[in-house]
Amino acid sequence: MRLFGALMVLTGGMFLTSLFVGYAAIPLGDGMAALFGAGDPLFVTVMQDIRLPRTLLAAMVGASLGLAGAAMQGFLRNPLAEPGLIGVSGSAALGAVIALQTGFAATFLLALPLTALVFAGAAVGLILLLAGPRGSSLTLILAGIAVSAFAAALTSLTLNLSPNPYAASEIVFWMMGSVADRAMTHVWLALPIMALGWLALATLGRGLDALTLGEDAAEAMGISLSTLRLQLLFGTAAAVGAATAVAGAVGFVGLVVPHILRRFAHGQPSTLLWASALGGAAMVLAADLATRLILPDRDLKLGVVMALIGAPLFLHLIYKTRREIA
Amino acid sequence: MTLLSLKNLTVRRGECPVVDNATLTIKDGECVGLIGPNGAGKTSLLRGALGLLPHEGQSNLAQLPAKDRAAEAAWLPQKREIAWPMSVERVVALGRLPYLARGASLAREDEDAVNAALSRMGLTNFRDRIATQLSGGEQARVLIARSLAQDTPLLLADEPIAGLDPAAQIATLDVFQGLAREGRAIFTSLHDLSLAARYCTRLVVISQGRIAADGPTDQVLTKDMLAEVFHLRADIVLTSSGPLVEPLGVLR
After folding, report:
1. What pTM was estimated for this model as a whole?
2. ipTM here
């Protein structure tokens, strides 16, 4: 409960800071009024059309990645697992790249995220086909690696064959991941799909707790592993697929956040689920804030900052694991 | 009351039956030892009985819905896994999971069952320790306590005392004997024949997937059986505390 309170305060604080800190200096009171459509129309535009969708998306993307990461680690019983492992984010990125390359992305606002979502769904179908509906966690990982590798290869091929350097650079920048310059339309597209994913993932707690004792013991305690696996797969696809579709590839959140919070969740996978959702939201909000504060003029990408924060934390994780094993 | 009833249970790995036409029943109050050489099919028999492996024939447990089965029989796998750094108390409390509604926290009776399991396994002073930081033998005791916390009429255990120190082995089997005297039943695979003879009311011998013998300890545990099933030349010394099996050599 203390953990819940602390994380709520942290995430709430980051959310408000993200709303009220930005390129345009808007006094707190005016900003608050503008958020509800009152006061200076310029302030209203900035708050409602720029800051609010950006902040909401950062929080949603972070929550999705954190939650999916905690679920994936719990299912595979491995602290090095992350939601990208099953190839959903790679496939969604491929969809987006193809949409950008073919010019389909420019036809209407949601063309790009929709294509990305279709590809994420196709990835899950392919993984189920490869791993079988009842296969073990190892076949799931292997199928995920195969799908990720193939998606990465096709992404490179698309870039390779790109006749237009501007399209290529647009693709490269999109792939770095960002929640800047998004509209509320993006929020409305992603939110229902993410919410379905959150529901599927958040209800895994019991099964993941049981899996602490291994697959055999969990099954003997009445947990259906095949249902659990399907739910995990669809939950991750919906949450992470939607996140990638609207924000591009943002790495390390799903890996690092559960790792940091595990100690505070007493190692209990069910507690870690919601804790990582809140923690992920706070971390992505903080990283997005950093992109605005560090180099406000250079359009620093969220994925880049996240990787810069995430990689050292990951190194720390490896160092700690090494010491524990030795 | 019959707690476990297997009829012509067959478990196949590919074409080859690893459990071949096993039929047996276990009633309340029994502590049944399952003995047999490596690869004889002990684990497959236990897992097949629980319905964790595809099988032919019948097992009363495998026919139950998963949730009801979890209230009838607890399962202690041979592979000892505690994936996350959780406290001993939290690990043992996982045994209450089958009885908890989604998202519910432990009720009074759940806590009582956890405390009883901890004290039976002598772990009360360990309750706040991180389970993954304990020694292998201590973790094994934590996992036994976990299966006791499930508080079922029947406990199936796969080599529960492997890797425990002698005192912990005896203490664990004392706990099993106590559970049987309370009217529960234990079905456990064991490798220590002397301990099996001392603590089990009945022995089931499995050899190449078939049940080779099933009966009271003194009738089953003979030199001929040890020679035939275990390829072992052994002395069986009757002492005041039960038969003692002294392996002497390997028969080829």
Report:
1. 0.90
2. 0.91
